[in-house]
């Protein structure tokens, strides 16, 4: 009985680590992890920054994201993306893309000049091209922000060009052309319509878009 009591009262000699030591080890490990992550992010940022081209697709995409048709915007701008240095250049190229598409449309309508409705429609498209060309002339080539007056003028011209295209379609429908013919014209006009809409969105945000460095 005494031996048993003696054994129960003996201190246990296990290998225990003190709480202060555990806390110290935890702090050291946490500090090492923090420094490792910080270094990793620093190296990653430096690598990304140094490897990003002057006119990256990501930068173009960020500007196209303000438009209603971002995919069409990228399609219009990507072939010349290496030459884009600021939002003014992007706006100008977007408008020029609209002009190119409308010029093709005008040629197609002229080829069908046996229809009086096509003649009226072509006049509207010619007017749209004229307004867009005025807009191109108003956009400066440099990085200098456009004045409020210029922005308002360009918005007016581009908006009118968009209206001309819609009026063309409306007139074709009103004169009773076949649905197939009207749909064909709409399809030919799709790109120019989207490019013009995108140009209107870009000019509306032009001074909020950061230049691409």
From TrEMBL:
<keyword id="KW-0812">Transmembrane</keyword>
<dbReference type="GO" id="GO:0030599">
    <property type="term" value="F:pectinesterase activity"/>
</dbReference>
<dbReference type="InterPro" id="IPR035513">
    <property type="entry name" value="Invertase/methylesterase_inhib"/>
</dbReference>
<dbReference type="GO" id="GO:0004857">
    <property type="term" value="F:enzyme inhibitor activity"/>
</dbReference>
<keyword id="KW-1133">Transmembrane helix</keyword>
<keyword id="KW-0325">Glycoprotein</keyword>
<dbReference type="InterPro" id="IPR006501">
    <property type="entry name" value="Pectinesterase_inhib_dom"/>
</dbReference>
<feature type="transmembrane region" description="Helical">
    <location>
        <begin position="21"/>
        <end position="45"/>
    </location>
</feature>
<dbReference type="InterPro" id="IPR051955">
    <property type="entry name" value="PME_Inhibitor"/>
</dbReference>
<feature type="domain" description="Pectinesterase inhibitor">
    <location>
        <begin position="55"/>
        <end position="202"/>
    </location>
</feature>
<comment type="similarity">
    <text>Belongs to the PMEI family.</text>
</comment>
<dbReference type="Pfam" id="PF04043">
    <property type="entry name" value="PMEI"/>
</dbReference>
<comment type="similarity">
    <text>In the C-terminal section; belongs to the pectinesterase family.</text>
</comment>
<keyword id="KW-1015">Disulfide bond</keyword>
<protein>
    <recommendedName>
        <fullName>pectinesterase</fullName>
        <ecNumber>3.1.1.11</ecNumber>
    </recommendedName>
</protein>
<keyword id="KW-0732">Signal</keyword>
<keyword id="KW-0472">Membrane</keyword>
């Amino acid at each position: 009985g005494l031996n048993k009591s003696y054994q129960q009262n003996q201190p246990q000699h296990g290998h225990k680590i003190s709480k202060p030591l555990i806390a110290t080890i935890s702090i050291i490990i946490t500090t090492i992890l923090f420094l490792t992550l910080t270094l990793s992010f620093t190296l990653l940022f430096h690598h990304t920054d140094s490897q990003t081209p002057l006119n990256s697709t990501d930068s173009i995409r960020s500007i196209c994201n303000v438009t209603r048709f971002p995919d069409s915007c990228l399609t219009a701008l990507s072939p010349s993306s290496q030459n884009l240095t600021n939002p003014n250049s992007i706006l100008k190229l977007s408008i020029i893309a609209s002009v190119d598409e409308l010029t093709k449309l005008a040629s197609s309508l002229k080829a069908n000049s046996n229809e009086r409705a096509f003649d009226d429609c072509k006049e509207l498209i010619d007017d749209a091209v004229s307004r867009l060309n005025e807009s191109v002339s108003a956009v400066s080539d440099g990085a200098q922000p456009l004045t409020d007056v210029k922005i308002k003028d360009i918005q007016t011209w581009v908006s009118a060009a968009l209206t001309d295209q819609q009026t063309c379609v409306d007139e074709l429908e009103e004169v009773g052309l076949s649905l197939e013919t009207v749909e064909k014209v709409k399809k030919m006009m799709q790109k120019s319509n989207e490019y013009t809409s995108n140009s209107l969105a870009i000019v509306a945000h032009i001074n909020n878009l950061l230049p691409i460095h």
